[in-house]
Each structure stands twice: as C-alpha cells, then as structure tokens.
C-alpha cells in the first residue's frame, strides 16, 4: 500500500512493502508453526557478580522459519499476543525450559541452575496458569525453586483486580517470581511491597546509560543506585540486563547489583552450550 496513515500520502517505500509482505506471511504461518515444531528455545547465562558463576539462564524463544530463517521474538511475540497463540506458545516454552533445566539438575545437581521463563500478560491472567506451572514442574522433575517466572509490570496489572492474590497462588507452587524490564512500566511501589516477588530485572536502557562518561551517564548511574537500594530495602535481588562491557560490570558491582546478563557474559545459545558450560565449571 502506498497510503500513509491519517490521510497523508507517503511515497512508495520498497522496504516497507517488503516488511508488510513479510508480516502478512508470518501472520499466516504463525498459527500452525507450533504444530510444525518450528520453535526453539535458547538460553542466556545470568551471572552472579559476587562469584562470577552462572547461577541461572533465561529461556528465550525463537522461530525457525522454513524460508525466513531464525526469527527473533520481536518479530512474532506481538502477533502471538494479538491472536492469543501466546498462551499455547508460552506453555510450550515453559514445558521445554523445565525439561531442559530438569536435565541440567539431574546431571549437575550441585550447580542448582535456575531457569527463568517469560510469561506474557495473557498467560498470567489465565486462571489455568497455576496448574500449567505445577504440571511442567511435575513432568520434568525440576524442583520448584529452580524455576523463575518473569512478568512485566503490565503483566502484573493484567491479572485483573487482584494481582496480589493471583501472584500469591503462583508463588505458592514454590517458584520464584521476577519483575521484568523494571523501571520502564508503571511501577506502583506500594503494590510492589505486597507482591510475592524475589527479583527485579533492571531494564536494559538504564544499564546502557552507564556506558559513557558524559553527564547522562551520571544520571543513569544514580537511577540504578536508587533502584538497587529500593530493591534491597524490599528484600529483593537485582539482575541487570544488557550488560555489554567490563566497565558496566564494575559499576554495577560497586552499586551492589546482584547479577547480570548480556553480551559481556554470553548471548542466548542452544541448550547444549549451557550443558558444556556446566561441564566445564561444575
Ligand atoms: P527480554 O525478556 O527483556 O529479554 C532480553 C532480551 O535482550 C533478549 O532479546 C536478549 O537476546 C537481549 N539481549 C541479550 N544480551 C543483550 C545485550 O548485551 N544487549 C542488548 N541490547 N540486548 C541483549 P530477544 O531474545 O530478542 O527477546 C526479546 C523479547 O521477547 C524478550 O525481552 C521478551 O520480552 C520476549 N520473549 C522472548 N521469549 C519469550 C517467551 O518465551 N515468552 C514471552 N512471553 N516473551 C518472550
Ligand atoms: Ca525477560
Ligand atoms: Ca527484560
């Protein structure tokens, strides 16, 4: 289409036309992709700043598309959310991740490796989520405290009128809960205090801001400092996302941040890479 939004006319843009063709193709293929077994889960190390050890991994879904190649979640998660497929896809990721982590736990029990799984708002507001989590744990043999569930602030709010009660039921299965992308959404601090959560994941942009030596970096660092203090005052641990440089590790460690993930430590990888890592360090 050559028509721009809101009554304006845009010049024909071949890149945009290609993007639209791709998104139409994805929308058509997505509903049956699960049945065709086209999704894969990669795992990104989360490293403890105190010990330098990998204590956890985050499960991140990818779509191995037959012609378009390996697609990042940004290209299909939104679509899966709109169509409701995210509920089945999310459950599949949860089960897959628990099976993988169950194997790591069997082979390297002393590592006590946690797997962290993203839950979308639609999954969190589905009353069956508690049974699904319990079922995934039972089927895999993974101890509940080795599963962490990541919810964004908006996913917490999507639990309807009573997020505290909904999350309490989830927490009662023994799993850990983390607030993902903390600081980017609507944070109700009074609420936060009541939620049965264990960890705050500090959104990438704050960590990105700590990279340079310009005045903006000072502000970013003050924000991170304040968020770490807030988290610790509430008895929560803090994981920094998008850690890309040794300087960031140094600064984050100095501010008391507990753990981090990002390119500096390792990009998301196949489960076999995590097994190798455990073999080398365990
Ligand atoms: P997220 O939960 O914030 O995941 C972290 C994202 O940061 C991942 O992108 C990861 O690959 C990327 N990342 C890792 N290291 C670095 C780094 O050093 N710098 C920067 N700038 N980024 C880094 P990815 O894998 O493309 O996932 C994007 C988002 O898709 C995730 O963001 C999450 O919101 C969503 N997602 C992924 N898997 C699932 C899933 O199974 N279920 C649901 N509901 N959402 C998922
Ligand atoms: Ca996440
Ligand atoms: Ca995140």
From TrEMBL:
Instruction: Report the residue ranges that make up the EAL domain in this protein.
Output: 23-282
Q: Which domain of life is it from?
A: Bacteria
Protein known as: GGDEF domain-containing protein
The record lists the lineage as: Bacteria, Bacillati, Actinomycetota, Actinomycetes, Micromonosporales
